[in-house]
């Protein structure tokens, strides 16, 4: 643990941007946890008298066409956006890690089936496949989570497969097998925990993409529905006002979305440097 | 013997910047090679032979820095030349061939073109007649069916064949000095001899000076006029090959020869010499980097090393030579 | 060469089978009654039953699958509910618009990312390198639909440099004679410079928005592979032979470094084809992405399904092309097969 910490400090000092990303992450976490409490206005409360007001001291990010406070909406949306992304990443991780580890460990048919599945998903442009899935499963938030998880699945499965394959014949796995553990136990209890650090890196690297994907889907009207506050849909609403010069409606949710993705991408890079310096590009 | 050597390296020191601090990889290295002479640079793996060659050629990694020294060649100090002037000399006046010929060639460029590139660069041929000149070079290094081989990519050729291509590239512009860095390591024994003979013959014809880097003492003895022994970034002894074999003066050289009897001594297997190379990252490296392993150590061995001339054309860096 | 082509084609077959199976499954996954869905919201029970029979939904799944394959082989993707037109026809007329946008974006991305990656590698560890890393990470973090909007606001609304973000051509200009369907090419071929300029102006903002999004994988791969190549033995040989820095970096290093970059193009296309949908929505670009989004909004399913299938087949074809080009460029692959 100590060398890892020392290495972490080295990486942070080499690359202060990663430190910045950790700070941003903390901010987003606070917004996600306490957003509804911190929001100065009710995010769903319309107020016709205050419609389309530019940013001011009372409304930091201005108000939208219904007079709702954009700052409050952006703040409150954090929870929904991050939850969708997080849930899909966890789901992708569970599906991918389990099948990938099984494929790498057992080889043979398991490997072929998982490989075929991953290849088939990768044969689609991923966002397009996600569109098709949500359209087929129904226009609901949970289906955004599922679609995003499915398109991320191959990535996890491949990484897990490769790592499990390398470790299949490693000493500690051999030892676990010899001491009478069943195959399932060896895989779940010994191989899986061992590849966790690499999977963690993968998760933080795909978080940003998951947020983008979910926001993209709601931008084209899939999943989240008005009046719920969500960054993608807020940008879509603001899009109608860009050509008449009301820039703030789209700008603030869009910029927040961008910042969140940027934060997770930097975090993923940083985490990778800390956990697995080999993978650094 | 000519009085002015083809290459004279003096007081060469090289440092590398690494994550764990500065490593003094070479310290006060000095040796010379005469025109037409073949000098072997021998030493364990990691003793600094390649770094010496790279420093002279000016192709050290960005992390490496020459901190002192001169390398006199054709009246100029190579270490003081700018990159542009040095690049003019490289490949024309001084050339180098490397270990692992198959990775040392551009994998996606036809070998004939790779020879032609050097010729064109140094004015040895125009773009138009370079292909023909490249084929002539292939003939010279005795590659059968040179017209067809010129069109080949490195992956289509054997290791020995690739090394011949490397030699063709290196000698294309008739350099005055050739540095061959373990040119036969990784080749099978027959090919090894063929390549060594080829280098020897072509160098002899052209009166070229040759530095032959190896960890194979037997090979060094067979093909070289003089042997320079390196240990942990120091030159510990330099002597004519026969003299070194019959009467080594430095304790390290002696140990080396005693470790495996006969002329088939190879430094590949150095396990028979107690201890390994010292960790060059240490800040308290002793003046004599062999002292930790030395049985003849004296009190004064902590003093800066002397360069003693012992006999004709022999130098030994030791307080208590044999 | 023919061998290479055939071997690559063979690898594409499982992908195509997978794509067809998945798109078939997507239709059957429709919640509720697909026939009711296809028939539209206000359909009567008889109409639904009729549709069911017409779509073959009263048959068993394997039969339906065979029917689906048959339809595909006849180029039948069903009809759009809202326009009544065959989906194949609508997609075919709209495809050139999407293809022109996507390919143009790719060219822009490659033209920026590759020099950037090379520069970052050659100047490794300097501020140029760090800037390159931050810029590309920021680029891939930008939601394309947001970048597009921002560009429209700044360059159209504020600065008036760009035309209104609506479609492929200003309403005052007439489209060029149809040759390839690519306005840039067609107008250039017919020497219609005014249209060429107009089309280029319309294309600029959406293409740049898409390009920014796909810079990162290209630039990073270029940098990484360039670094690996610069540290390799044959570069040392090239330097030891005194070759000029230009020859070393371009003729020797870059040509080798570009090979892995070609492989990443597959991923870049996945990015671009997805981004294409969003950007078309923002810029009212009359391509297949916008077509699908409009169909989604009206729950018109056949166009969506046709769109997903078309995109996937296109993507498989692109990957095939990339593989083939790689084989042509790399003698080790070309001569092996
Ligand atoms: N790029 C580098 N960075 C740090 N140390 C290096 C580098 N290149 C060589 N060294 C160090 O220099 C020493 C001599 O290396 P080298 O000249 O390659 O030995 P050899 O005698 O086997 O050719 C070794 O200890 C090696 O660790
Ligand atoms: S200088 Fe002293 S310690 Fe070093 S080799 Fe000679 S005798 Fe041994
Ligand atoms: Mg070496």
Q: What is the helical fraction of chain B, as a range of percent?
A: 25-40%
Order of helices and strands of chain B: EEEHEEHEHHHHHEHEHEEHHEE
What is the total tally of β strands of chain C? 0
Shape of chain C: globular
H and E string of chain C:
HHHHHHHHHHHHHH
Residue-averaged pLDDT of chain B: 86
Residue windows where pLDDT falls under 50 for at least 5 positions of chain C: none
Radius of gyration of chain B, in Å, reads 20 Å
- Structure ligands: adenosine-5'-diphosphate, iron/sulfur cluster, magnesium ion
Mean pLDDT of chain C: 87
Oligomeric state of shown chains = heterotrimer
Distance between the termini of chain B: 28 Å
H/I helix tally of chain B: 11
Major sheet size, sense and barrel closure of chain B: 8 strands, mixed
Which of globular, elongated, flat, extended, rod-shaped describes the shape of chain B? globular
Radius of gyration of chain C: 24 Å
Instruction: Give the chain pair forming the largest contact, with residue counts.
Output: A-C, 48 and 59 residues
Strand percentage of chain B, roughly?
A: 15-25%
Content-based structural category of chain C: mainly alpha
């Amino acid at each position: 643990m100590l060398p890892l910490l020392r290495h972490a400090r080295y990486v942070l000092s080499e690359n202060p941007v990663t430190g910045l990303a950790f700070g941003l992450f903390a901010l987003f976490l606070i917004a996600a946890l306490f957003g509804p409490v911190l929001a100065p206005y009710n995010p769903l409360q319309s107020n016709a008298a205050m419609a389309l007001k530019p940013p001011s001291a009372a409304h930091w990010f201005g108000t939208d066409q219904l007079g709702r406070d954009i700052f409050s909406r952006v703040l409150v949306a954090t929870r929904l956006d991050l939850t969708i992304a997080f849930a899909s990443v966890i789901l992708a991780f569970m599906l991918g890690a389990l099948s990938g580890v099984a494929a790498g460990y057992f080889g043979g048919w398991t490997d072929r089936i998982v490989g075929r599945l991953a290849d088939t998903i990768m044969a689609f442009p991923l966002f397009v496949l996600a569109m098709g899935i949500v359209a087929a499963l129904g226009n609901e938030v949970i289906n955004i989570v599922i679609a995003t998880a499915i398109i991320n699945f191959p990535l996890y499965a491949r990484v897990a497969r490769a790592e499990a394959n390398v470790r299949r014949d490693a000493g500690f796995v051999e030892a676990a097998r010899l001491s009478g553990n069943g195959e399932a136990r060896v895989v779940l209890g010994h191989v899986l925990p061992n590849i966790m650090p690499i999977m963690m890196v993968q998760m933080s690297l795909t978080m940003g993409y998951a947020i983008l994907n979910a926001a993209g889907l709601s931008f084209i009207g899939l999943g989240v529905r008005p009046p719920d506050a969500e960054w993608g849909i807020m940008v879509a609403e603001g899009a109608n006002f860009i050509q008449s010069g009301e820039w703030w409606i789209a700008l603030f949710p869009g910029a927040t979305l961008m910042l969140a993705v940027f934060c997770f991408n930097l975090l993923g890079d940083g985490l990778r440097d800390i956990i697995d310096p080999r993978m650094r590009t | 013997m000519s009085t002015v050597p083809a290459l004279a390296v003096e007081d060469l020191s090289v440092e590398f910047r690494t994550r764990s601090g500065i490593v003094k990889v070479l310290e006060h290295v000095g040796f010379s090679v005469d025109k037409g002479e073949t000098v072997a640079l021998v030493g364990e793996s990691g003793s600094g032979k390649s770094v010496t060659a790279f420093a002279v050629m000016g192709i050290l990694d960005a992390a490496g820095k020459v901190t002192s020294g001169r390398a006199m060649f054709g009246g100029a100090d190579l270490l003081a030349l700018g990159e542009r002037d040095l690049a003019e000399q490289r490949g024309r006046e001084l050339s180098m061939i490397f270990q692992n010929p198959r990775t040392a060639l551009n994998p996606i460029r036809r070998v004939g073109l790779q020879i032609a590139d050097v010729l064109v660069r140094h004015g040895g041929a125009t773009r138009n007649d370079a292909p023909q000149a490249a084929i002539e070079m292939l003939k010279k290094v005795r590659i059968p069916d040179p017209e067809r081989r010129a069109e080949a990519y490195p992956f289509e050729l054997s290791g020995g064949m690739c090394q011949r291509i490397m030699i063709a590239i290196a000698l294309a512009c008739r350099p005055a000095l050739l540095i061959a860095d373990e040119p036969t390591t990784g080749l099978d024994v027959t090919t090894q001899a063929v390549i060594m003979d080829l280098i020897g013959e072509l160098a002899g014809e052209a009166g070229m000076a040759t530095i032959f880097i190896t960890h194979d003492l037997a090979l060094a003895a067979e093909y070289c006029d003089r042997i320079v022994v390196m240990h942990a970034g120091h030159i510990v002894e330099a002597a004519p090959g026969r003299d070194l074999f019959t009467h080594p003066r430095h304790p390290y050289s002696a140990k080396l020869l005693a470790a495996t009897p006969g002329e088939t001594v190879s430094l590949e297997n150095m396990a028979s010499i107690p201890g390994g190379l010292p960790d060059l990252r240490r800040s308290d490296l002793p003046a004599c980097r062999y002292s930790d392993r030395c049985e003849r150590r004296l009190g004064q061995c902590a003093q800066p090393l002397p360069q003693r001339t012992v006999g004709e054309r022999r130098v030994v860096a030791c307080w208590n030579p044999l | 060469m023919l061998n290479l082509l055939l071997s690559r084609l063979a690898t594409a077959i499982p992908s195509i089978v997978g794509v067809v199976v998945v798109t078939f499954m997507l239709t059957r996954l429709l919640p509720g009654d697909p026939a009711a869905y296809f028939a539209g919201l206000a359909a009567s029970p008889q109409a639904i039953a009729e549709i069911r029979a017409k779509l073959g939904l009263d048959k068993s799944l394997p039969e339906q699958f065979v029917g689906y394959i048959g339809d595909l082989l006849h180029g039948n993707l069903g009809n759009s509910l809202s326009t009544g037109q065959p989906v194949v026809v609508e997609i075919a007329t709209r495809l050139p618009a999407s293809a022109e946008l996507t390919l143009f974006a790719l060219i822009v991305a490659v033209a920026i990312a590759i020099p950037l990656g090379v520069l970052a590698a050659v100047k490794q560890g300097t501020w140029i390198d760090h800037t390159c890393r931050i810029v590309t990470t920021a680029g891939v973090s930008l939601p394309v639909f947001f970048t597009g909007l921002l560009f429209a606001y700044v360059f159209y609304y504020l600065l008036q440099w760009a035309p209104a973000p609506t479609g492929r051509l200003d309403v005052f200009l007439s489209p060029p004679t149809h040759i390839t369907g690519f306005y840039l090419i067609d107008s250039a071929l017919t020497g219609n410079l005014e249209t060429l300029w107009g089309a280029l102006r319309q294309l600029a903002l959406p293409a740049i928005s898409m390009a920014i999004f796909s810079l990162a994988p290209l630039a990073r791969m270029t940098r990484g592979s360039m670094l690996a190549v610069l540290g390799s033995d044959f570069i040392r040989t090239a330097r030891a032979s005194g070759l000029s820095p230009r020859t070393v970096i371009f003729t020797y290093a870059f040509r080798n470094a570009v090979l892995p970059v070609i492989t990443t193009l597959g991923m870049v296309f996945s990015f671009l084809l997805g981004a294409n949908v969003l950007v078309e929505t923002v810029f009212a670009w009359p391509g297949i992405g916008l077509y699908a989004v409009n169909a989604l909004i009206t729950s018109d399913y056949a166009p969506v399904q046709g769109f997903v299938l078309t995109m996937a087949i296109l993507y498989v074809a692109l990957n095939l092309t990339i593989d083939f080009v790689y084989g042509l460029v790399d003698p080790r692959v070309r001569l092996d097969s």
